[in-house]
Fold this protein.
Amino acid sequence: MRRSLLLPRLALTSAVAAVALAGCSGEAMFPGAEDDGQETAAGETGAAQPAGPVECSEPPAPPSDPMAFHPDDLPRPKSGDPETLTATVQTNCGDIVIELAAADAPQTVASFEFLAKEGYWEDSACHRLTTSGIYVLQCGDPTGTGAGGPGYTYGIENAPADGYYPPGTLAMARTMDPNSNGGQFFIVYEDTQLPTDGGGYSIFGTVVEGMEVVEKVAEAGVEGGASDGAPAQPISILSVEITQ
C-alpha cells in the first residue's frame, strides 16, 4: 500500500489534516509515512558551537533492491535502560547526530536501531521537504517514492497532546492508520504544529548536532519552487550508526 506525504500548504485544521493523512493512496504522508510510516522528537538544536559551511557531495544511486522484512521481524521494545541512545546519521551533506529517546518511545527506538544495524537506509534519498505551514525534511524510504516500508508496522507512542513539534524534533511519519509506523521519519527544522487527530506522530529523538545540514537543505527549497516535494538540494542517508 502506498502512503501519503504531507500536503503542500497544509492548513492546520482537522479537515485538511484528515485529507493530508489519508493513506488510501499508499503514498507516505507527512507527517505520516509509508504504510509502515514514520516521524520525530524535538530538542535543543541551538546554542551549539558554530558549525562550518555545509558542503554536499553528489548523492549515491539509490538501492536497486530495497530490503524487506517479515512482519514478525519487528523487534521487541527497548527496556528503557539506558534511557537514551545516540544515532549518527551520515549523509552526503554531513552528519546529523540524534539523541534517541529509548525510555519514551521504546518500540520506535527499537525499530530504528534494528533498521540502522541492518543497513536498511544506506544510500536512500530524503524524498520530501515541506516549506509552508509544516517545516520538515522526510526521509527513511529506500525506494525514494514515499510509499516504501520495511515490511512491518506498529503503533503511535510519545506523541505530543498539543501537536507541537519544535525544531530538532525527530518523529515518525505514517498514514491515516495509527498503526502504520514503519521506516519513514521526519526532522523538524522550524516550529511546526501538526494535527492530533488520529493520535499524532511519534516523537523518538532530538537532533543534538548537525541541524545546519537540515537547514541548508531547507534553505534551498523544493525542486521546481513548490512548497512540498523533493528537496532542490538532494540529500541521501549513507549510513546510520547507533551507540549508547
